[in-house]
Amino acid sequence: MAKTPKSNLYEDLKRQILTMELDPDADLDEASLSEKYGLSRTPVRDIFRRLAGEGYIDIRENRGARVIPMNHSTLRNFFLVAPMVYAAIGRLAVQNFKPVQLLDLKQTQERFRAASDNMDALAMVLENNRFHEIFGEMSGNVYLQPSLGRLLIDHARIGHTFFRPRNEDMKRRLQVAVGHHDSFIDALGAHDENAVVDLVFEHWELSRENMEMFIAPQGLKADAFLGGPATQLLEKSS
Hints:
There is one protein chain. With 238 residues, the protein is mainly α. The chain has helices at 5-18, 30-37, 41-53, 72-96, 99-117, 121-139, 144-158, 168-189, 193-215, 218-221, 230-237, and strands spanning 27-28, 57-60, 64-67. A 3-stranded antiparallel beta sheet has the order 1-3-2, with helices on one face. The longest helix is centred in the middle third of the chain and has 25 residues, at 72-96. It is globular, with a radius of gyration of 19 Å. GO terms for molecular function: DNA binding; DNA-binding transcription factor activity.
């Protein structure tokens, strides 16, 4: 399908939010976007409403649109709920996936692997996000898919340290994550529901440890008042 200025705006804003090119809570300038994409205000507002419905932006009355923020409350809820949603999605994916979706997952994994080999952080963010989106599509559940979509937005944004490894241990963890994706594909092909759920929690734990680096960088963790893992910090802040 041919790209249109309206579809380009939609895809570009999604990509910029997921890759943190647009910071959380950043204001979106309707006028400048209209000019840049050659659109009138009405289609720009249509895109804003669509993205708001998908959880990417927040539209405030008389104050315009902004990138959905991240704060202590949303992060705490993310850490509490993500494993449960991912596990439920995984079970339903095994039960309901279609062969064409498994092929899509395999192709996405090949792009993710290539991005990891090239240390292309932005491509890894987008392909990893797509990999997990496909799981949601496989589940075929109209209640869980919107929840997964919202979780994946923040998962991408706070997981950036994972795709920018700064030492050998982080590089090793990244390769483990690539291997997890291969194992997900094998378990789905075998219709092994328990194996998929076990992998969900292994994969989540790997991601969680790296996401804590984003929330509490090493320099801050050394301060006495920041003792304990990020999950404890989030609980105390609620």
